[in-house]
Design brief:
354 residues, alpha/beta, Rossmann fold, four-stranded mixed sheet, 13 helices
């Protein structure tokens, strides 16, 4: 049910993968949405058109950049909440342009916080952080190989990584997102803003235009459908917990609707141990799903790559009763269907062109 406050919700980066799914869910329940997006990334304009076709005047799209403080001020003045998802999202891009990465992720976030502090103090701010704030997390001596996946040796990590884990930024991307993460948290403590941080793991699902640098599940599946070989950086035994975007959107909305209790808090958001998968295991899942052999090769590990990361989401579950509902197999099926329909790909068509 939409909030009786009729003012719109601002979503920065709202034409991105997670942002557009979140905007869609909120608009569908009756909320008015303002999207602020620079429309720079591949697939973003497609997502913008999709939102407008589904929700018409309920979704307004502003073309702008969070690096411009005047644009940010204009966008936050009259909204009832800010969901801040705009950002530079790839570790590889941060290595190529650390300054640009900083300006978007760190400076852009401070622009949002300052705009709210000075011009709309009652608006909650929810921030899209990342598991990369925990750094590499485990050294080689702290993990063991079990079949075709890594596992931590410590029983303390059986339920995943909790929010109490010390931060250890690794890579320019980890530094910029980590700095933003801490700014958002601190603006609640020091200035009394109602902010919350969601440290997200591997989110996947429809409307994700995956690439080698970001959105790896969609990239793996799309490459398989196209018959293109994959490059795995590392040995493929590295593990991530995967969360379907429908469950991620539900978590964001739950935190927003309970902001009085969530203010000042940090929550991990991922699929947890039950949805953990290694890269090699995902390839097997895709092979079974599509009925094809997925060609792949190996390359060196990249800076900041985590051999194992699984979110402990018990804090979010305890606070609000949220839990992932979509199992990996079903989530892959929904992504598979969307990729086939969006790109006009199917196994039969690919074989006919071979």
């Amino acid at each position: 049910m939409a909030n009786p406050d009729s003012r719109p919700i601002l979503i920065t980066g709202g034409c991105g993968f997670i942002g557009c799914n979140l905007a869609d869910r909120l608009a569908a329940r009756g909320d008015r949405i303002i999207v602020l997006d620079n429309l720079a990334r591949a697939g973003i304009r497609d997502n913008a058109q999709w939102l407008k076709s589904r929700h018409r005047d309920r979704v307004d799209i502003m073309v702008g950049d969070v690096r411009d403080p005047i644009t940010v001020i204009d966008s936050v003045r009259d909204v009832r909440a800010v969901l801040h998802l705009a950002g530079q999202v790839a570790v590889t891009d941060s290595l190529e342009d650390p300054l640009g990465d900083f300006e978007i992720n760190a400076r852009g976030t401070v622009n949002v916080l300052e705009a709210v502090r000075l011009h709309n103090r009652t608006a909650p701010v929810l921030f899209a952080s990342t598991n990369k704030v925990y750094g590499r997390l485990l050294e080689n001596s702290s993990i063991e190989r079990v079949g075709c996946r890594y596992a931590p040796r410590s029983p303390a990590l059986a339920n995943g990584v909790s929010e109490a884990t010390p931060l250890d930024f690794y890579s320019p991307y980890g530094c910029s997102k980590g700095a933003a993460d801490q700014y958002v948290r601190d603006y609640a403590r020091v200035f009394g803003l109602r902010t919350a941080v969601l440290r997200m793991s591997c989110i996947y699902g429809p409307r994700q235009f995956g690439t080698e640098d970001q959105g790896w599940i969609a990239h793996f599946l799309l490459s398989a459908l196209r018959g293109e070989p994959l490059t795995i950086f590392g040995d493929g035994c590295q593990v991530r917990d995967a969360l379907h975007v429908s469950d991620a959107a539900e978590a964001w909305i739950t935190v927003l609707d309970n902001i009085e209790r969530a203010a000042g808090c940090v929550f991990n958001l991922g699929g947890g141990p039950s949805n953990a998968v290694s890269l090699l295991e995902l390839i097997d899942h895709i092979s079974e799903l599509c009925g094809i052999h997925v060609r792949h090769s190996f390359a060196d590990w990249r800076p900041g790559d985590q051999p194992w990361y699984v979110s402990d989401t018990s804090a979010l579950s305890a606070a609000f009763g949220w839990k992932p509902r979509t199992v990996l197999r079903d989530g892959l099926g929904s992504l598979h269907q969307w990729l086939e329909s969006r790109f006009g790909l199917s196994l039969g068509k690919r074989e006919a062109l071979a």
